[in-house]
């Protein structure tokens, strides 16, 4: 069929074509006026997924998983019921009557209205990963415009609540734990103070070192005293077998004079004879020197005995002082060990208390956050 033949056919049947066109047009107009009008309103939310948490400093999760989670939150029954409460739809008498007629008063009106509100709502992620569009379809244009805005505001408030609620719970829990940790710290400090007062211990840095130095000094003094005693005993024994070993000074002089006089006396005996006055005078002088020598030797012996007794007494005193110092060191060491345990208990209790207080302060601050990472774009 060529174009000319087609035009000839239309010309022959133009009335039928015109009638069909007019029928279709009229039918479309009638149907359009008879159908309920539907209005669609859309609100866009933009998310800041790059900025870390302002309090905890924790980075946001992966954008894809985070946005997928937010889509489910927006679609949730909790959010729909919050929209109902925000718009106070459950307070409308007509709505209440419809709910009772539809459910017989079973369940809650918030849940029933939430289900109905969700039917007109659609949520989709925008072209960007950090954009979500909330659309609502309704026969009333004002209602259609109100619902997406209400959904957006309800979501923002819910977003804040989802961040704040756990922080509030943790804050309350940490507050209770802080009380317990504070009591534990006070008890540990009380035990430490009681032990110090009971045993008269004052923790001084270097006290153990000072007492150990005293102990070493006493040991050194005892060693010196023992050496002196041994020397005195050696001198006393040696003086009995080796004359002149222990003596000095006058005794040595007297011994020399006696020896010289004995030599002279032997010479005088050979030259002058024993009855010569000079010999007898020398003999009397020798006897006097020997007598003086014996007296001095007795004095030296007494001095050695006294020195030996003094040295032994000093040794005894030093041994007693060393034993006392040793007991003091052992007591101080034991006290310091017990004190160290109590001090570690205090430090552990203080560390636990500080950690709990730090976490309480952080969660308390988080529970007061009224900012969110989402904003209404359109």
Beta content comes to: 5-15%
Low-confidence stretches: 239-247
The number of helical elements comes to 10
Which outline best applies? rod-shaped
Radius of gyration, in angstroms, nearest whole number: 58 Å
Structural category: alpha+beta
Strands in their spatial order, largest beta sheet: 2-3-1-4
What's the rounded overall pLDDT mean?
A: 75
Helix share of residues? over 70%
Main sheet properties = 4 strands, antiparallel
The count of strands amounts to 4
SSE arrangement, N to C = HHEHHHHEEHHHHE
Distance between the termini: 56 Å
How would you characterize the overall build of this protein?
With 378 residues, the chain is α+β, with helices and mostly antiparallel strands. It is built from ten helices and four strands. Mean pLDDT is 75; it is low at 239-247.
Quick summary:
With 378 residues, the chain is α+β, with helices and mostly antiparallel strands.
What attributes characterize this protein structure?
4 strands; 4-stranded antiparallel beta sheet; 378 residues; alpha+beta; single chain
Topology:
Elements lengths: L2 H10 L1 H21 L4 E9 L15 H12 L2 H11 L5 H11 L5 H11 L1 E5 L5 E8 L2 H59 L7 H35 L8 H22 L5 H90 L7 E3 L2
Antiparallel strand pairs: 1-3, 1-4, 2-3
């Amino acid at each position: 069929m060529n174009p000319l033949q087609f035009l000839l056919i239309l010309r022959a049947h133009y009335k039928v074509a015109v009638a069909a066109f007019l029928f279709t047009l009229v039918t479309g107009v009638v149907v359009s006026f008879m159908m309920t009008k539907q209005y669609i309103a859309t609100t866009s939310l933009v998310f800041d997924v790059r900025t870390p948490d302002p309090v905890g400093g924790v980075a946001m999760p992966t954008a894809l998983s985070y946005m997928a989670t937010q889509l489910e939150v927006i679609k949730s029954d909790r959010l729909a019921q919050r929209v109902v409460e925000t718009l106070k739809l459950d307070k409308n008498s007509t709505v209440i009557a419809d709910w009772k007629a539809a459910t017989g008063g079973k369940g809650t009106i918030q849940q029933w209205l939430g289900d109905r509100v969700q039917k007109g709502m659609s949520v989709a992620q925008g072209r960007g990963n950090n954009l979500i569009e909330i659309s609502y379809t309704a026969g009333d244009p004002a209602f259609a415009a109100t619902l997406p805005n209400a959904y957006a505001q309800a979501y923002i408030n819910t977003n804040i609540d989802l961040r704040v609620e756990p922080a509030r719970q943790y804050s309350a829990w940490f507050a209770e734990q802080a009380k317990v940790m504070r009591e534990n710290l006070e008890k540990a400090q009380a035990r430490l103070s009681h032990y110090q007062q009971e045993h008269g211990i004052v923790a001084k840095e270097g006290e153990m070192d000072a007492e150990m130095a005293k102990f070493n000094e006493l040991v050194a003094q005892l060693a010196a005293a023992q050496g002196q005693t041994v020397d005195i005993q050696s001198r006393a024994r040696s003086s009995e077998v080796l004359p002149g070993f222990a003596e000095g000074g006058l005794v040595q002089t007297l011994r020399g004079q006696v020896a010289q006089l004995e030599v002279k006396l032997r010479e005088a005996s050979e030259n002058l004879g024993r009855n010569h006055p000079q010999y007898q005078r020398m003999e009397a002088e020798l006897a006097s020197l020997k007598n003086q020598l014996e007296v001095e030797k007795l004095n030296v012996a007494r001095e050695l005995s006294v020195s030996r007794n003094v040295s032994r007494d000093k040794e005894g005193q030093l041994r007693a002082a060393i034993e006392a110092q040793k007991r003091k060191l052992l007591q101080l060491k034991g006290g310091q060990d017990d004190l160290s345990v109590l001090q570690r208990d205090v430090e552990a209790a203080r560390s636990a208390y500080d950690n709990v207080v730090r976490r309480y302060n952080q969660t308390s601050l988080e529970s007061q956050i009224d900012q969110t990472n989402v904003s209404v774009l359109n």
